[in-house]
Amino acid sequence: MDFWDQRYSQPDFVYGKKPNEYLKAKLVDLSSGRILFPAEGEGRNAVFAAKLGWDVFAFDSSIEGKKKADSLALTSGVSIDYRVEGLEQVDYPASYFDAIAFSYTHFPEDKRKLYHKKLSAYLKKGGFLILECFSKNHLNFQKNNPNAGGPKDVTMLFDLEEIKNDFADFDFKEAYETETDLEEGLYHVGTASVIRIFAVKK
């Protein structure tokens, strides 16, 4: 069993059942359409979007994550299209989605730009990018708090200018680094340094 299957096989929703607060704040102000959640894990964000009326698509490499997401969707009275696939395998039509949401979606440094380019191609012109991920400065909080979450490899943490370059064909409405206090299940707890982006595809 790989790392993520092992983590998601725990009885508890390890990142909680509530959506990420930044994602929530952005989605409630948008008209619903099709939205994609890469590396969606246990489905908390996807289910929230579905409850708002979005047509939700998600994928993750973990079958245990899908089981949790399907269960949460069922108890919430919504449906989501959730695939068990890695980013190398996943394939959606070009310009298909009205929004794409990255919530702590971290990729290896040598693949990150390529993966971001692949995923952004699935977004329509005028579509929305919503992103909250750990910054490189988050390492300082990890040292003091093992439950702060995020990759321990600094190369997988985000630099604001690098991420803006990855999404160069976007108009950035918000793009900043900040500190926030997380209360997301068992593994995102305490002060964190995050990057937040809200952008529109040109």
UniProtKB/TrEMBL annotation:
Residues 40-127 form the Methyltransferase domain. GO terms for molecular function: methyltransferase activity. Coiled coil: none annotated. It holds the Pfam family Methyltransf_25. Keywords: Methyltransferase, Transferase. One of its GO terms (biological process) is methylation. PANTHER family: PUTATIVE (AFU_ORTHOLOGUE AFUA_2G14390)-RELATED (PTHR43861:SF3), TRANS-ACONITATE 2-METHYLTRANSFERASE-RELATED (PTHR43861). This is Class I SAM-dependent methyltransferase. It comes from Algoriphagus aquimarinus.
